[in-house]
Amino acid sequence: MAPATILVAVFVIAPFFWVIFVSFTNRTLLGRTAVNPEFVGLANYISLFDPVSFFQRGQFGFSLILTTQFVILSALVGQALLGMLLAWLLQSVPKGVKSITETFVIAAWILPEVVIGFAWFAFLDYDNGTLNMIMESLGLPPGDWLLQQPFWVIVIFNVWRGAAFSMMLFNSAFASIPPSYFQAADVAGASSWQKFRDIGLPLIRGHVVTVLILITMWTFNTFTPFLLTNGGPSYRTELISIYTYRVAFRDFDFGKGAAVGVIIMLINLVFALIYLSLGRKRAKGVKT
Amino acid sequence: MRHMFLRFFSRIGFSVFASLIGALFALPLIWFLFAPFNARAELGLAIPNPFTLSNFVTVFNNTFAIRGLWNSLIQSVGGVIFVGVSATLAAYALSRSNMPGKSAVTYVLLLFSSVVSGSAAMVPIFLIVNSVGLIDTHISVILVFAGGLLPTAMFILRDFIDGIPKSYEESAMVAGASPVQAFFDVALPVIRPGIVVIVVWSFVNIWGSFLIPFILLRSSEKMPASVAIYSFYSEAGTPIVTLLAAYALLYSLPVVALYLFVSWKFGFRFFGGIKA
Questions:
Q1: Chain A contacts of B89, Cβ < 8 Å?
Q2: Could you tell me if residue A233 is inside a domain?
Q3: What is residue A236's three-state secondary structure?
Q4: What's the ipTM?
Q5: For testing the chain B interface, which of A86, A100, A114, A218 should be mutated: the one with the most B CBs within 10 Å?
Q6: Model confidence band, residue B273 (pLDDT cutoffs 50, 70, 90)
Q7: What residues have CB less than 8 Å from A136, skipping those under 6 apart?
Q8: Distance (Å, whole) CA A245 – CA B120
Q9: Which residues of chain B does CATH 1.10.3720.10 include?
Q10: Which of B214, B256, B226, B249 has its CA nearest to residue B69?
Q11: Cβ distance B218 to B135 under 8 Å?
Q12: Is residue A49 in some structural domain?
């Protein structure tokens, strides 16, 4: 028990309180305030929420809104729908098709993020990239995607990267439905869509919220797009995690970086509380 | 009859649709199947001609590259040992003790671990490691990961141990075994599959990570492969594609091997389902 207690206390619980403490100081990496940070009250928070610059590119508000759009489009819409579609589709296709499709979807999820970042960099390359090669062979104009559409690139990138996660979660949700329900529907001649609408979806409704919260938390905290875009061009893909990194480790403003960290934790807390209360409700439901 | 036809065609339609999605997922990765074996590889897709292993030879002759893989191994194995040992002991204690409020302990731990994410905690983690003078050491990376992965690992293992009847150890103790013997000789062998699960899970997580070593390490001799890979750029800042591709493939191999191992042993669902 003891080693676990120490490790968790030092690297999980201490950072939680430390980040709150640092967010009220003007701690920097170098210089006088690195050794003797001063207490500055709410100054870091006030500068984050400064109404003059809030919505400007490269500022906190811009990054927060960008992250919200990123989460809604890539996680709640993209990953959830594609994951559910895949989980449903792969139940009723021949084994060979199923395992090949699964292999690629899961490969996108398990390979190290650096490798994935580089694969996409090559894929999107203007001169030689595979995507532009395909575009040209279809008679469509090539694009310099990372410069022209950086936001949509990271949205699609994240759908691609994370669809496996919701596919697997939905897969186990569908697997919890007694097969006899579907057999009865088959006998009655129901189509796949009817089975999905009338049996599949209603019976996994409880799981859907859980899946949505898990992928939201994951996407909200992801740092991987940094490996593809570096947050650029001109802050257009600077998600909240990348913003924190830049403020703290490029501008060396730890106080402000910590303040962003506190806000991220508050948002995480809301999602985590909903998630854990759902889990508890379900556990109780099983017992009674 | 008409019904049978419809069903038959919808099955084909489904298969075509599923293969199409599979192909879309494969597209960004296809390049990786060819470039490592092409001595003149560029960012474009090209079938290697001739098919060669010379890129791998270059990687193996690059001491810096090999050291990166070695550092990844040190940090992952180190982290796995910490997570494995302390999660096993803690989960066992949590599961078997009659301590009041132990479900509250698990609840609070899970809450903390999901709230204190890498993006939220990078500043305090850096400052804590800095204040104890461990910046630019392997042990800092190992300990940070051990702490971060422990709550989830404990949670998974506790579930596992809860499923094993207490009577196993009780009967051993009736037969004269000490509690320590009961743990090592009776409980541990039964828990082993659960330990394999968390070991693989934490290894893959540490091996693939970028952000934590990126902020905690300074000197190039200690960089794991995920950070070292960024040194394969020419002075003009363009990537040395041949080297990068071969290196990325080597770096991915352990993850792929572990994935195959786990899906052979436990079925794939589990593996991706719990990746953090």
A1: 1, 3-4
A2: yes
A3: coil
A4: 0.82
A5: A114
A6: very low
A7: A142
A8: 10
A9: 75-223
A10: B226
A11: yes
A12: no
